[in-house]
């Protein structure tokens, strides 16, 4: 027997029209190149979305075309976030930190017909355009930068294009909620980048999660600044969540220095924000000179943040990070921290340990921990670890064009995340490592992430990454690559002495190497792959 | 182009298994007949749900049978809330306040195969059982009452049934999210009651709404007491929301006196609760003797509450009502109040006016105001009024067996709610009346609800209802039916004098009649219909 409820699709036009109708007076601030700011309102933003809808038609962009963006976090980017999917097209956010070969690969693989590009990023994109034959138009968005714009018939001006296009006057309609809304490529460690395709349904459901109280809890009275890039997994869904909740918004634009970010947070009395640990490491030393007392929520994700970093913010600002975990394939929020009634009995230090975890699976998401060797479920006893596998309405079931399927998805349709974790009986996940970053020593696993966090808790350490080096007897042994804070000095012996009371003896790294910087991926995570390449052929002491 | 997200249904088994896995340690308290209490945990509750699943199979209940309940708010009722839909069956909550004829009608119309009945309610149901030929079993739930239980082969004992049934050991699966999960009959003012059939999809989406921060914002640390009956529109979705969020729960059971309720709120440090205005009117005089400082959210809905009542609570407890509006056909939450950034500039009194409204449409719900005469959309200018029509994934599209369709649903598939409202430009709805309760005087409308609220703000008035009386010249004129507080005395002239500075002159009632009590419907709302019947043939003064 079927229910008798209305067949209304879960689709982005609802979020657009709701924002336009109820929240037109709310403000959107965008920081521009060179330290300026542009202000608009949701009402004016909505008019631009309606103009863009007409413009895409006028330019003859196909009905379900991929619409590329190569942009910072800006109000204009947010216009594209709505105009592409609300007209049935697919927003394709290109990651500005990719290598040229990867960029041309994904623009061609997605068959982007048009790319909207910020003027300050044009110099990076333009040399590749001749290798992107499907892209008929490059629309340059003024972000305050005065870099030269090529005189080329493919180049259009964003403001002019909007001015020449009358606003679409009707209601946007997307009848099938499973229609593609947006896509984002994930650069795996092997092979070509793979396309993750979000649907309207997955995007709307994921947006609701950013409103729930045991989570970011976005509400109309919030002022939200998404620092995590809008070219990376939809900025964790924050932009759509903001529009659904009707928050004010602040976008940091092209200047992503810690100084610029902390100034924006202070000036606009931001209440909720989100970024990767690297961002927060940069902001931490600046806290004493800025009043961030308006902050209520600091989302932190992308990679496991050291407890010491989160606690440093808690001590300064009174709020710890709200840890979340996920990846492009999970929309990306799969788990979130939130306080639990049984935490009330714990000491502050015990609570800090729990806050440093990645939290509990979000409503509608199912997780399981699977032993990568046996394929068996691992019990949630907080000791045994397994690969996290995920299922849910905003978890990918395959990659674009069916590529890379076999390895990443299980036979029963769950996503293999490649992250290894333990979970306590309350479902609080503790990331231990990436499957490929675990150090397998004598048949036992050593968590490189845990070693890194302990080393990074040392007051003289800026960053640390631990990699596995082949070992004749133990198969692999850990080596710590450590970046010392400017002006400090540190010896390998001091690092080992610092670790001794904190980890099992057999976990102690066989060597400590001092490096200038931990190499980062295009989304700011530690690139263990680059580090492993650098240390290929490394000889362990005594071997 | 389609998205490539997993096809996971929005279905109640997810909420069940999530609660069982993460929140097994959380407590559920049920008040029993005679002032006792029973305590259980979500873990033990889940075992009972699993036992019930087996029991329903053992008794040969059809795969998609309607499973009736005739119960108070209890942990056992919550077991049925999950066991019926998780096994593919349909929970049918029978309203214990219906007249015998209506009860037999809906049990037969829904073709209930089994009814679970609280022992204290058995005396009310048993005389009707011979008129319910489809019902093969009446399962009596012990609620602490020792009323006699008939010696009849159709009668089973709930505890014994569970004890004899092994817990189902697998995962519940509902593959199609549009499968019916629950049904509830709505007693219209004309004709037979009509069945509203909720789907798994609508129920899961509606449950998420009770978790959002601009709403009840249920979270794991909450202790929730649903006072609104579980036989009435799923107790506003609170039970499912509690299980999704992992809150502790307190159920008031059979003793619904204000004294019992206020004691439970105090004793269990309840943080979130919900009930109709009548309940809160009863609780108000008891506040001085009880410590309700734990309360964070008081949901109020079912009918428009007078501002004076909400403000009285705000003055005593520091929190005003969280007004919500909806009906059985809307699952029921269609609108909710929440504070808005632009309210910050208002005076406390202006804010009180806004809080007394029904709020803004919930995410995923669309509303429009339609002139009942012309069928045209009415602008949201806070002045012009129209019938609220609703669309969304948890709004009914038709009644069970297609009955009553034409009048209640528009051609484009929206629900006609029968409630008349104005809305401000921010979408904040202000209920004015029921379409059939409006007083049409000289071609203009008078809001009976607004008159009632003004009269009820008089310190000597307990309750007031305004009805339309036919009038030769003006077509209709208002008459106020007033209940004076015990020990007070009041004259018609005093009522009119009280109204004069508050409403337009032509709104002043033509007569004030003092009555002992405003008649109530089965769900505790003012029954204008009964009142109109009582005053049929009433002669207005001077006519």
Tell me what you see in this structure:
Chains A, B: Belongs to the ATP-dependent AMP-binding enzyme family. Chains A, B: One of its GO terms (molecular function) is ligase activity. The structure is a homodimer of 543-residue chains. Chain A has 543 residues and is α/β, with parallel strands linked by helices. Helix content of chain A is 26%, strand content 23%. Chain A contains 16 helices and 25 strands. In chain A, the strands form five sheets. A nine-stranded mixed beta sheet of chain A has the order 2-1-11-10-12-13-14-15-16. Chain A has a seven-stranded mixed beta sheet with strand order 7-6-5-3-4-8-9. In chain A, strands 17-18-19-20 form a four-stranded antiparallel beta sheet. In chain A, helix 1 crosses helix 8, helix 2 packs across helix 3 and helix 9 crosses helix 10. The model of chain A has no long low-confidence stretch (mean pLDDT 93).
